[in-house]
Amino acid sequence: MPRKARIKSSTGIYHVIMRGINRQRIFEDEEDYKKYLWELKRFQEICGYQLYAWCLMPNHIHILIREGNEPLEQVFRRIGASFIYWYNMKYERIGHLFQDRYKSEPVEDSAYLLTVVRYIHQNPVKAGICKKPADYRYSSYSEYLNGGALLTRDMLLKQISIDQFVEYHGELNADNCLEVKETERKRSTDEQLDELIKKRFGIQTTTDVQRMESKKQAEVIKMMVKSGGSIRQISRLTGVSIAIIRKYNNR
């Protein structure tokens, strides 16, 4: 089936979502988040786009962006290629990181711009990661308050003051913007994963997974991932390398 053509925005502003392939985590640690933001800044200078909001969630990304010198397809191709090359080197993996191409919706007026900014900043709150937007470290919310270098604040702050901005983000709402349809996979604790594989596979300790033959080891690893374990968490618990875990998970 041919892909639908993207709806063009008369303002050049789009709400963009990218998600991890197979809903896998994109960001494993703070360095990963910082690297992606660094790439956003680097290519902003090259491509001339403007950023109105962003939020880096564990397995997907929201960006509110205005096209500059290059179309968005080229922008995200550049950012993705650079980030994925670095990411694959770091985690000793190969292949794609993001699911298909990015999704986007046009933002045609200032009222909807405000709505999308709030929707993006409230993403981690609605996902149960934090209690208020200010608590989340990997969104542009704090840059609105502190004047971050990546952000173009003028269009929004001509409409409302910073105090009104904070109040607006605290309001109860039913904002309905472009979404990642699949829900965030619930993370399991170390204790839950430990109990799971001990009961299922009859082992004494999670480090016994290291000594299993490869077929059995792959079965255990896949179950831990399916049950909400992160790649790093599973590696730490079992002693199996991140590269091997990713290889099993991508089969």
Annotation field: number of helices: 11
According to CATH, the fold-level topology of the largest domain is: Alpha-Beta Plaits
Tell me the count of domains: 2
Name of the CATH class of the largest domain: Alpha Beta
Order of helices and strands: EHEEHEHHHHHHHHH
- What percent of the residues sit in helical stretches (DSSP H or I)? 40-55%
Largest sheet: 4 strands, antiparallel
CATH architecture of the largest domain: 2-Layer Sandwich
Distance separating the two termini: 26 Å
- What general outline do the C-alpha atoms trace? elongated
Tally of strands: 4
Beta-strand level of the residues, as a percent range?
Answer: 5-15%
Strand order of the largest sheet: 2-3-1-4
The stretches of 5 or more residues where confidence is low (pLDDT under 50) are none
CATH superfamily of the largest domain: Transposase IS200-like
Which labels suit this protein?
alpha+beta, elongated, 45% helix, Alpha-Beta Plaits
